[in-house]
């Protein structure tokens, strides 16, 4: 297990779009329970099964296992809850820190969130000028919640 | 993925107890949804994460991944639904076929079921004389169901 310490923000411009590299992701859930999410994700040619526990502040327990791509495709098409989440992830480095900006499509079209992973909850970091309001801990922005309450219906 | 083709029976005597080898199992669930169960199992020094789809007749899709023992212990103690399932499994060979007899403890004390895995739904096999009524497809006997509706409360 690792403990994932993350903070999440909205963005206020598209300035990040030209600053990084972008990959497509397709993911679905075998459990969306707040105490135990189980996610299947395909990112390019790799696939993972990721288990996350309940959030405490900025932190959350995480267990991740690589799985064969064809098995991930089968789990996504046959077993995962509907709808699947489709998004692109753009990685941008700003003052030595990595930001991951997720742009959602489908039922969550229009939603863009930026995440930064930290070493400790107290760690400070510089905010790029395209970063907007912080939404860490707002359950509406959890990917597992976006299945049941997609952004286009907020 | 493999397709698991299994038939399940009650037992009508303890004659099987002296015929095989027995291991202890501890397992819990990250999802007990009928369309997608996610099980964590510790059996001796090995641990697995197993995903199963919905049952169709005697068959069910199954994806299994080995995981580190300490991570399985953490998932069982921190994340899995309560209660955990505790049982022993005794493997007995009868006329060339392997029978797995699960004896349950805790909230399911008193329940004993015997399973046989087949190559095809049409495969025939000899019934040992300690085998009782068939319960294949009876959801009450699914391990994931035994969490919510344990045998001692039937």
Care to describe what's here?
The structure is a homodimer of 154-residue chains. Chain A is mainly beta and 154 residues long. Chain A has a single domain, classed as Hypothetical Protein Pfu-838710-001, CATH 2.40.320. Chain A is 11% helix and 49% strand. Chain A has 2 helices and 9 strands. An 8-stranded antiparallel barrel of chain A has the order 1-5-4-3-2-6-7-8. In chain A, a hairpin with a 5-residue loop joins strand 4 and strand 5 (59-66). The model of chain A has no long low-confidence stretch (mean pLDDT 95).
Give me some keywords for this one.
homodimer, 154 residues, mainly beta, Hypothetical Protein Pfu-838710-001, 2 helices
Brief summary of the model shown:
The structure is a homodimer of 154-residue chains. Chain A is mainly beta.
CATH superfamily of chain A: Hypothetical Protein Pfu-838710-001
Main pleated sheet of chain A: 8 strands, antiparallel, barrel
Helix content range of chain A? 10-25%
Query: What is the CATH architecture descriptor of chain A?
Result: Beta Barrel
What count of structural domains of chain A?
1
Q: What is the helix tally of chain A?
A: 2
Which value, in Å, is the CA radius of gyration of chain A? 15 Å
Give me the secondary-structure category of chain A.
mainly beta
Envelope shape of chain A: globular
